[in-house]
Amino acid sequence: MSGKDGINVKDFLIGGLIGGIVGSVTALLLAPKSGKELRGDLNEHVEVVKEKGAQWKDVAYEKGIEIGNVAKDKKDALVDSASDFVGVVKDKSGQLYETVSKQTKTVKDTAVAGVEATKQAAQKAGETFKSEAKDAGADVKKAADKSKEEVEEASKTAKHKTEKIVDDAKKELKK
Question: Considering the entire predicted model, what is its pTM?
Answer without folding.
Answer: 0.36
